[in-house]
Design a protein that fits this description.
3 domains, DNA Polymerase III, Chain A, domain 2, single chain, eight-stranded antiparallel sheet, alpha+beta
Length: 373
């Protein structure tokens, strides 16, 4: 293989692939990217056996071939390379040289391209179009909920995707939970989504996090899935995520608003107050107490090892007094992904879940379970 590439055309994609190639697996070859040169350009592939990527890029190909190269070292070389034109040549015994026409030259060991894991065949999938910016927003409003690292349950490590019909409106929905909180976000469509009619699927959160890096455009992308994989297609790039096996818990009963009463609060003021109240929290003392009373909210935090704090806010509250405790980090995470000026907090009693949504944009809903006082 002998090619000439332009630095700016592949430096960005190599940067995005670092999380995939840098993830620990039992196969050393997964730390590499596979570069395959053809008469029309180069294909770059990467996989950690759960998330796969392939993209096509322009290059001057003098000699066709393929080589697997350590992704981290290749990126480090190319990102600081002094010239835009970079030559990559395969020499003897899977070694390669990376050089320019002047005095910069690297020689490094490659890996056997035949050992590189295959990327799944996803040709027989029905896709539909969605704006990249819309899907990016949906991902960011669900993957912020992370579970315990060693947790094996699929609904903790994954995001549930389903197509629903609600009030006569077709929607694509993503749902994420860790057992103590839940986030749901919807995207509405006028026309029926051309997705599989099968039940919803569970997509790995770390896979969606990798995929999210490629949603840096406002153009339309294509998404689809089959029984094994979720697929995103751009003009010249494809990301494939192996689905998680298992059942997602029934969640719709917990997002029911019928019995709750609502309080409208200025989002930024509440967020900053909770950040101040979080100063004395720790792994053992995560909760803060919300005391709702006539026209006011008093939030207090107590940690016998560090100290205590309290702060009062004037709000429009005309219900019975209520004292309820929450993990303050869960509230802060939720308020950070809402962009409206005001949020609506829906409560029933001190033992029931709290629902939080934006005042105007109803596509996102967060559920936070209370803590014992």
């Amino acid at each position: 293989m002998k090619i000439k590439i332009i630095k700016k055309e592949i430096s960005d994609v190599l940067s995005k692939l670092q999380t995939i190639a840098g993830r620990k697996t039992n196969l050393a070859i997964t730390t590499a990217v596979l570069i395959r040169a053809t008469d029309s350009g180069i294909n770059i592939s990467s996989t950690d056996m759960e998330t796969g990527f392939t993209g096509f890029y322009s290059a001057e190909v003098e000699r066709e071939g393929a080589i697997a190269i350590n992704a981290k070292m290749l990126f480090e070389i190319i990102k600081d390379f002094p010239n835009e034109e970079i030559y990559i040549n395969e020499i003897d015994n899977l070694w390669i040289e990376i050089l320019n026409q002047n005095n910069v030259e690297y020689k490094m060991a490659g890996m056997n391209p035949d050992d590189f894991p295959g990327i799944p065949d996803v040709e027989n999938i029905t896709y539909f179009d969605i704006k990249a910016s819309v899907f990016k927003d949906m991902i960011e409003k669900t993957i912020f909920i992370t579970g315990i690292t060693e947790e094996k349950r699929p609904h903790i490590n994954g995001v549930y995707l389903e197509k629903i019909l609600e009030d006569g409106i077709n929607k694509l929905r993503l749902v994420s939970t860790d057992g103590s909180r839940l986030a749901k976000v919807d995207c509405e469509y006028e026309n029926a989504l051309e997705l599989s009619e099968e039940p919803g699927i569970i997509i790995s959160k770390k896979g969606l996090s990798d995929l999210n890096k490629f949603l840096d455009t406002n153009k339309n992308i294509k998404i689809g899935y089959n029984n094994s994989n979720f697929v995103l297609k751009k003009e010249n790039e494809t990301v494939i995520i192996r689905l998680l096996e298992g059942n997602f818990p029934e969640y719709k009963y917990i997002i029911d608003k019928k019995e709750a009463f609502s309080i409208t609060i200025e989002r930024q003021k509440l967020l900053m107050m909770l950040k101040r109240m979080s100063i004395f929290t720790s792994d053992n003392f995560k909760g803060v107490i919300f005391n709702f009373d006539k026209e006011k909210l008093l939030v207090s935090s107590t940690n016998p090892d560090l100290g205590e704090s309290k702060e009062e806010m004037i709000i429009n509250y005309d219900f019975d007094p209520l004292e309820i405790a929450f993990n303050v980090r869960y509230f802060i995470d939720t308020l950070n992904v809402i962009k409206d000026d005001n949020v609506i907090i829906m409560l029933i009693n001190e033992k029931s879940p709290c629902l939080v949504e934006a005042e105007n944009n109803k596509n996102f809903l967060s559920v936070i379970m209370p803590m014992r006082i």
